UniProtKB/TrEMBL annotation:
Family membership: Belongs to the purine/pyrimidine phosphoribosyltransferase family. Xpt subfamily.
Name of the featured protein: Xanthine phosphoribosyltransferase
Keywords, comma-separated and alphabetical: Cytoplasm, Glycosyltransferase, Purine salvage, Transferase
InterPro entries on file: PRTase-like (IPR029057), PRTase_dom (IPR000836), Pur/Pyrimidine_PRTase (IPR050118), Xanthine_PRibTrfase (IPR010079)
Molecular function terms from GO: xanthine phosphoribosyltransferase activity
Subunit structure: Homodimer.
Sites where the protein binds 5-phospho-alpha-D-ribose 1-diphosphate: A129, N130, G131, E132, A133
Source taxon at top rank: Bacteria
GO cellular component, one term: cytoplasm
Protein function: Converts the preformed base xanthine, a product of nucleic acid breakdown, to xanthosine 5'-monophosphate (XMP), so it can be reused for RNA or DNA synthesis.
Reactions this protein catalyses: XMP + diphosphate = xanthine + 5-phospho-alpha-D-ribose 1-diphosphate
Subcellular location(s) per record: Cytoplasm
Encoding gene, per UniProt annotation: xpt
Enzyme Commission number(s): 2.4.2.22
Length: 195
């Protein structure tokens, strides 16, 4: 079993609505050993894809994304959740992302100058649940006329609809840990096979 999965079983805390808290090693305090494993696996999977940029969304995608970008030796770009009042619409690609963990919709933007049609983009995020963040990031890359090579996800909750939506959209996904089921009564996490 991977070190990430071991830490999920040992330190993951189950919250209502199938939300998993992993603040002790990924979302607040960060375990470099988890980061090293993420880099190794995702780099091995995408190394021949001529990645030119790694894209994520603030805030919790930033740590794994910068580590992966360093390995590919390419820039890391993060989409920002922008306030409508400060938005310079002509200078950004913009999309909307609904967060079911927060129950809010954010305007998510990247500066046009940082994404261009030649880019081959690897998208990284900490969690894949319903796929809203991933599909929003894909939309930003599409607006730039760039290409999404694939996604690298730390923790996929496979029982939610994100993976299916991405598979149906023909987007390549590599997930480090796929969770088939979270049983809150028994405080149990069951992994799915594969990536
Ligand atoms: P999605 O957009 O796929 O529905 O959800 C992915 C985003 O929501 C991630 O960027 C992540 O920050 C957050 N998220 C979704 N599910 C969880 C969860 O179980 N735990 C944590 N900590 N974040 C989650």
């Amino acid at each position: 079993m991977s070190y990430l999965k071991e830490r999920i079983l040992k330190d993951g805390v189950i919250f209502p609505n199938n939300v998993l808290k992993i603040d002790s090693f990924l979302n607040q305090q960060i375990d470099p050993k988890v980061m090293r494993e993420i880099v190794q696996e995702i780099y091995a999977y995408y190394k021949d894809e001529k990645i030119t940029k790694v894209l994520t969304i603030e805030a919790s995608g930033i740590a794994p994304a910068i580590m992966v970008a360093a390995q590919f030796d390419v820039p890391m770009l993060f989409a920002k959740k922008a306030k409508a009042a400060t938005l310079q619409k002509d200078q950004v690609y913009e999309t909307k992302v609904y967060s079911y963990t927060k129950g809010t919709t954010s305007n998510v933007v990247v500066s046009k100058q940082y994404l261009n049609p030649q880019d081959r983009v690897l998208i990284i995020d900490d969690f894949l649940a319903n796929g809203e963040a991933a599909l929003g990031l894909i939309d930003l890359v599409d607006q730039a006329g760039a290409q999404v090579v694939g996604l690298g996800i730390c923790v996929e909750k496979s029982f939610q609809k994100g993976r299916k939506r991405l598979d149906e959209a023909g987007v390549k996904v590599y997930s480090m840990a796929r969770i088939a089921e979270i049983n809150s009564d028994r405080q149990e996490i069951i992994f799915a096979q594969g990536h």
